[in-house]
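Q: Structure tokens for this one, please.
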Amino acid sequence: MSYHGGPAGSSPIRWNAIARFFLAQGYAWIEPNVRGSGGFGRAYEAADNGPRRLDAFKDIETTGRWAASQPWADKDRMVVYGASYGGYTVLIALTRMPELWRAGVDLVGVANLKTFMATTSGFIRELFLLEFGDPDKDAAFLDSISPLRDADKIVDPLFVYAGANDPRVPRSESDLIVKALRTRSVPVEYMVAANEGHSLSHRENIVGFLARSARFLESHMK
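A: Here is the predicted structure, written as tokens:
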């Protein structure tokens, strides 16, 4: 299950090299557009703002359980995947519904909304103020939906990717979740690309990510 970034992004019909790679490995690849996705009207896009974020979390579980129930799926080998806000979605899925998943792949995802809001800036910070809330006025709510707070509930193996020069979701966010899982001896592999920002764009990094994440998942799918 691959969840898009944004938060108000969307997964359109298109050529996707990463999806094609995992399809070639024998995976079924699903890209849901849950509440908050763009392209389906203003009301749908705003349906996850503020406290309604919890409704989008329900959609993560609903789409995951739907996929697991399909005849072409293996309910015992479900992987949750996503980048940026999709990486945050991966961490939410693993903390709130760990029994649904076998493993996760988190690319440049937010782990702690308080530290993220303190280290990001510009348009991204303004966007998250609208989507999530103010880190001062809404501090308790932001803490309640920060995956790091519930990291002790993650039991599934996790592959984490970060760009060392990321200006949007600083590498420190990935550091936080990796440290929390390694402290508890949860299987985690961490790839940091020295020449990437909020991206996975250099050929050698794409090849490295695909090879490493595929091996990691294969080793935990047996």
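A few notes: Residues 18 and 210 are 8 Å apart (CA to CA). The chain has a mean pLDDT of 94.
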